[in-house]
Known about the structure:
Layout (H helix, E strand, L loop, with lengths): L7 H28 L5 H31 E2 L6 E2 L7 H22 L3 H27 L3 H25 L1 H5 L3 H26 L7 H44 L7
Antiparallel strand pairs: 1-2
Helix pairs in contact: 1-2, 1-8, 2-3, 2-8, 3-4, 3-8, 4-5, 5-7, 7-8
Amino acid sequence: MDIATLSIGQFSFVQNAFSFGFAVMAAATLFFWLMKSEVAPEYRLAVVITGLVTAVAGYHYFQIMTSWVSAADTSTGVVVATGVPFNQAYRYVDWLLTVPLLLIELILVMRLSRSETIKKSTMLGGAAALMIILGYPGEVSQTGGLRFVFWVLSMIPFVYIVYQLVVGLKSSIESQPESVKNLVNIAIYLVIGSWLFYPIVYLFPLVGLTGGAAITAVEIGYTIADIVAKAVFGVFIFVIALRKSKLINEKSETAPATENV
Ligand code: RET
């Protein structure tokens, strides 16, 4: 990627987006960790992991922003490459850590049986890690051909995850309490919707966007998707945990709690 193809406006726009991403992730982390005691003990792990995801992302956004700033000199009013490459590995390392955690977060908040929790976390977490690892060589390659080949390879685990979320979790959703069924459904579609964004953004340089416009579109696209997939999704997880905690409290006053509550 050639940073000198960006206009000064594009360069600052991306820099501001990274700064915004860092602020959102840092604030979300504080929110989840400070609010953790508002949910029943059964759901605290899910909420702590939600904060862990935004904490890891916040750290990486800070690094991404720093790397972006060191890659260019704008003091002359145009973008001149300093020779220090913009490090895209930060994004992929961030995803490698956070994507499996996000899936585990969703599984934990559903409170399935122990064996099912372990099985689903391993399968989905493993597929997510594979998807990210397969995407990286294409992201850093300079040729459209390689970018496309790795897109196709990475789409295989991606389709598997989406299939598992839609079909595999269907019966688990049915066993969720009425008051959260809708929220769990929305959370799953939020995952699928925001995740679909990534492979589409990845393709931008292959569908006619070039130079600075392509770089800007990819970086802004990933940043928006990250904010939705981590912070906004995290709020859904938190609200689901809060509502289920209320149910536990109500039930303990009347009858014993049911399995998925
Ligand atoms: C890549 C490569 C091209 C093909 C596919 C991809 C999918 C990436 C996804 C990333 C999700 C990241 C999240 C981060 C925030 O927490 C690697 C771009 C399918 C789905 C959710």
